[in-house]
Amino acid sequence: MEAPFVVAVSRDGLHRFSKEPQESIELVEDLGVRGDAHAGTLVQHRSRVRRDPNQPNLRQVHLLQSDWLREAREAGHDVVPGSMGENVLTDGIDLLSLPEGTRLRLGDALVRITGLRNPCRQINDFSPGLLQLAVRRVDGVAIERRTGVMSVVERGGTVREGAPIRVELPDGPHSPLKAV
User: How far is CA 173 from CA 99, 100, 102, 114, 149, in A?
Assistant: First the structure.
């Protein structure tokens, strides 16, 4: 199996659904992606700001597996890197199976996974029917969220296409990811 790596990086200074692919992005400790609308120590996601603008920002960097984009394309959706609003598109790593608190070294930067991205209906505005791939029921009851993980920046650095990804699992008992 190939070692995990960064496929693409994206950012956008405006609150839009998709982000623009870049040659590189700069992660800033405790803040997020420099120049991205979701950077900040406090929550930046519009609906979460309306509920409580003083919550810590657990969604500074969004990571998504390239397998999901491939599956969406096979289902007829026109998606490319950045389409889902991800900052980092990955390959060779099952992000969704990692426990809460896992640290990922992205080149020389370090992020800590805080939870699952909670897809919203805007996904269907982007491409009708795409929400069915993003969220699905398991055993008719549990909800499986499939559009990546959210993280916070613990050590800043530049991240670019091709950067290796190293996984550092947390000590002690592992807790499954929950939506953040």
Answer: 9, 10, 12, 16, 20
| Beta strand residue intervals within the chain, DSSP E | 5-11, 20-22, 24-28, 32-33, 61-65, 88-91, 103-106, 109-116, 135-138, 142-145, 149-155, 157-160, 165-168
Q: How many helices (H) and strands (E) does the chain have?
A: 4, 13
**Are 9 and 61 contacting, i.e. CB atoms less than 8 angstroms apart?**
no
Give the dihedral of Cα atoms 108, 61, 13, 54; nearest 10 deg. -120
* Number of Cβ within a 10 Å radius of residue 36: 27
Q: How far apart are CA 3 and CA 1, in angstroms?
A: 7
Statement: residue 50 has pLDDT above 90? no
pLDDT of residue 139: 82
Q: What is the mean pLDDT of the chain?
A: 94
Contacts of 160 (CB under 8 A, 6+ apart): 6, 9, 23, 24, 25, 107
Structure confidence by residue, pLDDT tens digits, 100-119: 999 999 999 999 999 999 98
Confirm whether pTM is higher than 0.85. Answer: yes
